Every structure is written in structure tokens, then in C-alpha cells.
Amino acid sequence: MQIVDLIETQASLEQLAAWHHAEWEHLNPGKTLEMRLEEMQEYLEGKPVPRTLVAKDGVQVMGSAAIIESDMETKPELSPWLASVFVEPSFRKRGIGSSLVKQVMNYAKEIGVKTLYLYTEHEASFYEKLGWQVIAKEDYRQQEVTVMKADLLQNQ
Q1: For the chain, what are the domain ranges?
Q2: pLDDT of 25-66, one tens digit each?
Q3: What CATH number does domain 2-151 carry, 3.40.1190.10, 3.40.630.30, 2.40.30.10, 3.40.50.1370?
Q4: pTM of the prediction?
Q5: 3-class secondary structure for the chain?
């Protein structure tokens, strides 16, 4: 497995957009697949944020994770965010998700980010094992979510 920037594997964009849309459509009512694809074009601009990292095995796309400016309009004061952590179901339970998250955390630290945020519906324990801390539980878009943070400078 290798982890590369989406810029290096632009052909993966449509597959990732389809996976992300299917997985999180309920959290984004009214957003179409076409809208998601259009938004994801920003990942190809080469700016430090947003960035998407892609796990691949040869040409096979296995999953992704991203760093974005904001992921919850109810928490505009928090930035940046880990988002779009997704591993295709047939590749799960192999450490790919953990590798993607750690890689985004390392990247964030390299670009000077001190604290990274995320929200999750069901995977708080997964992130806790990677050093993330719960900061809130709340109803977001009619879903119970856990908001978490990772202090990236605590191990220096």
C-alpha cells in the first residue's frame, strides 16, 4: 500500500467522490454527487489546505482522508479538520484507516497546525486509540456526533 496526494492520482477523484457521497449523503441533504465532485476539485489546486491523501495498492484505490478548513458550520471557530476518512469495505480492518489518519496528522504538523479537529458518528473509539480526545457530543444535522481534537504538538 502507498499513500499519495490526490493531485498525484487525479483519476481517483470520481471514485472517491462516489464513496464519500454514498457514505455521508445523510449529513449533507441536498448535496448531489455532481456538487461533491465540483467541491473536490479544490483538492487539486495544490494549496496546503484542503488536501486529500489516497491509499492505493497499485491502481486500486483503497481509501482516503483529508484536511480541510472547516467541517461543521456550527463550529466555525475550530480549524482545520480531519475529514473524509473512508476505507472501501473490502479493505477494512487492515490498518489502512489508521495509516491515513496518521499521515494527515503528520502532514498537518508539518504545515504548522497545532490542533486538528474532527467529528464522527460512530468511530470515536477508533480515533481515541490514535490519540484524539472527545471535546463534545452533540446533535448535528439530526445525527448524534462526537467532536474530537488532536493536539499535534504534545509529543514534542
Answers
A1: 2-151
A2: 888 778 898 988 988 999 999 999 999 999 999 889 999 999
A3: 3.40.630.30
A4: 0.90
A5: CEEEEHHHHHHHHHHHHHHHHHHHHHHCCCCCHHHHHHHHHHHHCCCCCCEEEEEEECCEEEEEEEEECCCCCCCCCCCCEEEEEEECHHHCCCCHHHHHHHHHHHHHHHCCCCEEEEEECCCHHHHHCCCCEEEEEEEECCEEEEEEEEECCCCC
